[in-house]
Amino acid sequence: MNAEISIRKAALDDAPALAEIHSRGWESAYAGIIPAETIAFKRTQRPAQWQAWVVRGDHEIYAAVLDGRLVGFVTMKQPDDHENLPSYYHEVGAIYLDPPVYRRGIGRQLMAYAEARARELGKSALMLWVFEDNAPSRRFYEACGYARDVKGEMVENEYGHTLRSLRYVKEI
Question: What does the alpha-carbon distance between residue 71 and residue 66 come to, in Å, rounded to a whole number?
Fold first, then answer.
C-alpha cells in the first residue's frame, strides 16, 4: 500500500521530529546489531545534533509528511573526499522512517525523490553506506536498484563494537 506523502526541505522547526524519527528508526532497525546502550546514548544526543545539522546545512535534508505529520526523512550530500568516486556521484547520507509507517512505500518515494534531486544537481549516480549485518535495509536498497560497489568498498565504525558498512551504488 502506497501512502500519499509530500516531500519538502526540512526546516529548523522540524529538528525535534527529525531527532525522534532518527532515534526510533535506530531502535527498530539496529536492535540486535548495535548494543542497546549505544542506541540509548545516541537517543540522548539526537535533539542537539539535529538542531546543529539543520542549521549547519552541509546536508540537504528532505522531510516526508503524511497527514500533516513528519514521518521520515532523507539526507543528501557530496561524497566525502576519501570516497574516491567520480564527480558525477552524490550520496544518500541517511534515510529513516517512523516505524509505524514502514512498508507503505514511503521509503521508496524518498529514494525516488533523492534520485530526482541528484539528477537536478547534474549527478548520474548515487551511493550510500549500509551496515553489512542489516539485511532488511540491504534488501530495501537492492529492491530500489542499488548494488554493492564492485570495488567492494567498506568501512568499519565503532558502535559499542565494530560494524562494517558496505558501499552501495546506483546509476540514475
Answer: 6
44-75: b or e for each residue (b if 16 or more CB lie within 10 Å)? eebbeebeebbeeeebbbbbbebeeebbbbbb
Answer yes or no: CATH 3.40.630.30 is held by domain 6-171.
yes
| pLDDT tens digits, one per residue of 40-88 | 999 999 999 999 999 998 899 999 999 999 999 999 999 986 667 889 9
Burial call 111-122: b when 16+ CB within 10 Å, e when fewer: bebbbebbeeee
pTM of the complete model: 0.93
What residues contact residue 169 under an 8 Å CB cut-off, 6+ apart?
Answer: 89, 125, 126, 127, 146, 147, 149
pLDDT in tens, 125-160: 999 999 999 999 999 999 999 999 988 788 888 888
The helix (run of H) or strand (run of E) holding residue 6 is strand 6-9
Judge whether residue 31 has pLDDT over 70: yes
